[in-house]
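Notebook p. 47: complex prediction with pyridoxal-5'-phosphate.
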Amino acid sequence: MYVRKTRLLTPGPTPLLPEAIRAMAAADLHHRTKQFRDVYRGVIKDLHYFMGTQNGIALFASSGSGAMEAAVSNLFSPGEEVIVCAAGKFGERWEQITTAYGLRPVVVRKPYGEAVHPEDLETSLRRHPLAKGVFLQATETSTGISHDLQTMGPLVAETGAIMVVDAITGLGSSVIDIDGWGLDVVIGGSQKALMIPPGLSFCSVSARAASRFDTATCPNFYFNLRKHIEAGPRGDSPWTPASSLILGMGAVLRHIRGIGRERLIENAQLLARATRDAATELGLQLFAKNAIPAGAVTAIRAPEGLSSTQIVQAFKQGFGSVVANGQGSMKGRIFRLAHLGYFDFHDLFGTIAELEVILQSLGHEVELGRGVRAAQSVFVDARAASASGSQS
Ligand SMILES: *Cc1c(COP(=O)(O)O)cnc(C)c1O
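Predicted complex, structure tokens below:
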């Protein structure tokens, strides 16, 4: 009651990996030294493993939006028509960036909580055969939906457009086969599944996309993709790198290699499933409908008569838990629980138990323990399945 630990339960920033915190403290070194170049080269190499791609990778000192901007400013020219799939606040960010660079976005818009379906994209591609790019989110963090990249990637690959995927919360929380599905640009950020603070973004760039470096005419300087992609494998960055964060990222990527990237994804997916089951058992409604639910984050509707702002405040005041409210017009209507990165079942059991107490104290009828039990069942079943899998 009287001791409350502050816990980050948000879909970015996410809880920090302890090994990374220690590694970040050792940043009193110069970046043009063999010692640091070895770290940097290792990080680029391990990012290839984490993302699962052979494509070139650029690493920037910026939050995720920096790499989103780089994709636009390096690969497109003013006046070009592009298709933006907008299913939430981050899809709307693509509209803003492409517009800022003078592109002409055609927007395929969905109500919050729904996804753009492959057929919607197919129709738009047919109507706009000259479109030079398709922009979308792997998972739309503001609503908790995922897009079907496996079907959409090949649709775009048949056209003259390149596919630009904001996978900032998708990476490490859902299966994304960058090379197999033809995803030309895939973007990530440090404060999501990578368990370190905000400040690094990265993106992979296919040869098909890179062939535009010489012809695209949008202006860019700091976020130059080619310079970053060429320098990285030598252990260099064009400008002074964010050394501390890179040391942290090195520690995280070693950790992910240790457990396996597939296992990290499975972990998030399991927590997400357990959260959905628990919410449903408590009589709550999930916000995502008509869509693949995200592994990164689950958006839950506040029950009738309650505001999600009250729920979020009660998490903070009663338990020290920092839970995300809805963004924009979704504020007050939904709250969002995160699963990506350094989250485990201990976190989830606690969070669901807190939620039950909060709902009860706000007058929503719940049977205490019912949601926790649903989450425990997912854990028990998954453990049994993995034990029988490892025996065979
Ligand atoms: C967090 C996030 C971003 C990046 O936002 P920044 O504030 O620039 O880090 C972009 N897209 C999605 C889907 C995100 O979840």
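Notes: DSSP finds 13 helices and 15 strands in the chain. The chain has a mean pLDDT of 97.
Next step: compare against the earlier run before touching the bench.
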